[in-house]
Write a structure and sequence with these properties.
16 helices; Na+/H+ antiporter like fold; about 375 residues
Length: about 375
C-alpha cells in the first residue's frame, strides 16, 4: 500500500468514526481511536505496520503542535492567578501516581528499575485527547486552563524525571567505565539542550508574529519551526515535547500578538489531531491485552486510582469550586503519545530487555484512551453545569 492511499483511509475512517461517536453522544476522540483500531493491523489490516512507521513525521508534527499549544496556555498573567493552586494539585497527584504505581509493581515482584520506570511513565497525561475534548465541550470559567496547566506540568515532570532516572540507570550500568559521563551531567545536558531549542524556536515565533503580514504566512513558519525543533531534539536525543512546550511558553509571554499563532493553526489543528488520534488507534495492538496479564492490570488500576485520589486530595488544598474538585481527577486519566514515546526510548536502552515495557504501556493506552475521553467530556459537562 502506498502512503497516499493509507493517509486517505486514515483521514476518512477517523472522520467517520468521530461523526458516529458524536451521534451516540460519545467524544469524537473515542470514535477516532476506534476507527484507527478498526483499519489497523489488529482488525481489518487496511493500514500496515510498515506504512504507519513511514507516517512517523506526521505523528511528530502532531505531537509538536499539541505541545506548542499546551505551552501557549502557560501565560504568565493567567498562571500567576492559577499557578499556586494548579501546582498544589499537580504535586499531590503526580507524586501519588508515581509512588502508587511504583510501589504496587515493586511489591508485586517487579525489579526495582522496571517498577520505577513504569511509575515515571504513569505520570504522563495525553494532551491531544484532552485538547480535542475541550474544543468540543467548552467550559465556563478557568477550569480548562487549570486542567491544561496540570497536564503540562505532568508531562514536563514525567519527561524531566524520566531523563534523570534513565541517565542514572545507564551510569550505574557503566560504573566500571571510568570515562563514562556522570548521570547528572547527561540529564542536565539533555534537558538544557531541549530548553535552549525551545527558547530559540519561541523567539523565532515572536519575531515572525511581529513581522508576518498574514496568518497564512505565520502558519508556514510555525509548522516549519515545530518540525525543526522536534527533528533536532530527536537527532540529539533530547526531550522533544519539552522543547515544543518551552517554545509555546516563550511565544505567549513575549509576543505583542499572542493570538496570531493560535488563529493561524485553527484551520489545520483539527485535521492534524484527527490523523494523529486515528493513527494512534491504528498503532494499538489488541493482542497485547491478554499478554500483559497481572502487571498491566496493576499498572492500570494503580494509575487510575492515583489520578482520581491524588487530584481530589490536591484540590482539597485549594479554593476551587466543588465541581472542579469533583471532576479534575477524571479529566487527567487519558494516556497516549507521551507515555508511548517514553516507553520506546526506555526499550532502546540496554538496561531493559526487549518487549518488556511497551506491551504494558500499550495495554494501558488502549484502556485509558477509550475510557479517558469519555471521562474528560463528562467532567467538562459537570463543571459547565456547576
Amino acid at each position: 500500500m502506498n502512503i497516499s492511499l493509507a493517509v486517505g483511509i486514515i483521514f476518512l475512517a477517523g472522520a467517520a468514526g468521530g461523526k458516529l461517536a458524536r451521534s451516540v453522544k460519545l467524544p469524537s476522540v473515542t470514535g477516532n481511536l476506534l476507527a484507527g483500531i478498526l483499519v489497523g493491523p489488529s482488525v481489518m489490516r487496511l493500514v500496515s505496520t510498515d506504512v504507519m512507521y513511514a507516517l512517523t513525521p506526521i505523528n511528530e508534527l502532531a505531537l509538536g503542535v499539541i505541545a506548542l499549544s499546551i505551552g501557549a496556555e502557560l501565560h504568565w498573567g493567567t498562571m500567576r492567578k492559577l499557578a499556586k493552586d494548579a501546582t498544589k494539585v499537580f504535586m499531590v497527584e503526580a507524586l501519588l501516581t508515581l509512588s502508587l504505581v511504583f510501589g504496587s509493581l515493586y511489591l508485586f515482584g517487579l525489579p526495582f528499575r522496571y517498577a520505577l520506570v513504569f511509575g515515571v511513565i504513569s505520570i504522563a497525561t495525553a494532551p491531544g485527547a484532552i485538547i480535542a475534548c475541550i474544543r468540543e465541550t467548552p467550559t465556563k470559567g478557568d477550569f480548562s486552563k487549570v486542567l491544561l496547566s496540570v497536564v503540562a506540568l505532568d508531562n514536563l515532570f514525567a519527561i524531566t524525571l524520566f531523563g534523570i532516572v534513565i541517565s542514572f540507570m545507564q551510569a550505574g550500568l557503566a560504573a566500571t567505565d571510568t570515562a563514562s559521563t556522570p548521570a547528572i551531567v547527561m540529564a542536565g545536558r539533555n534537558i538544557g539542550i531541549a530548553l535552549l531549542l525551545g527558547i530559540v524556536a519561541g523567539v523565532f515565533l515572536v519575531v515572525t508574529s511581529h513581522k508576518a503580514k498574514s496568518d497564512t504566512r505565520i502558519l508556514v513558519s510555525v509548522l516549519g519551526a515545530v518540525l525543526i525543533t522536534v527533528g533536532l531534539s530527536n537527532q540529539w536525543d533530547t526531550p522533544a515535547l519539552l522543547a515544543a512546550i518551552t517554545a509555546g511558553t516563550v511565544y505567549i509571554n513575549f509576543s505583542r500578538n499572542p493570538h496570531r499563532i493560535s488563529r493561524s493553526l485553527m484551520n489545520v489543528e483539527d485535521p492534524i489531531l484527527l490523523i494523529f488520534l486515528t493513527l494512534a488507534g491504528a498503532k494499538l495492538d489488541l493482542s497485547v491485552l491478554p499478554v500483559v496479564g497481572q502487571i498491566g492490570l496493576i499498572y492500570i488500576i494503580a494509575r487510575f486510582f492515583a489520578k482520581l485520589v491524588g487530584s481530589r486530595v490536591g484540590t482539597a488544598l485549594t479554593l476551587f469550586p466543588i465541581s472542579w474538585k469533583r471532576n479534575l481527577g477524571r479529566a487527567l486519566t487519558p494516556q497516549a503519545g507521551v507515555a508511548i514515546g517514553l516507553a520506546i526510548i526506555a526499550e532502546q536502552k540496554p538496561i531493559f530487555a526487549p518487549d518488556t515495557i511497551m506491551p504494558v504501556v500499550l495495554a494501558a493506552v488502549v484502556v485509558f484512551e477509550l475510557i479517558g475521553p469519555i471521562l474528560v467530556r463528562k467532567a467538562l459537562y459537570d463543571v459547565d453545569r456547576g
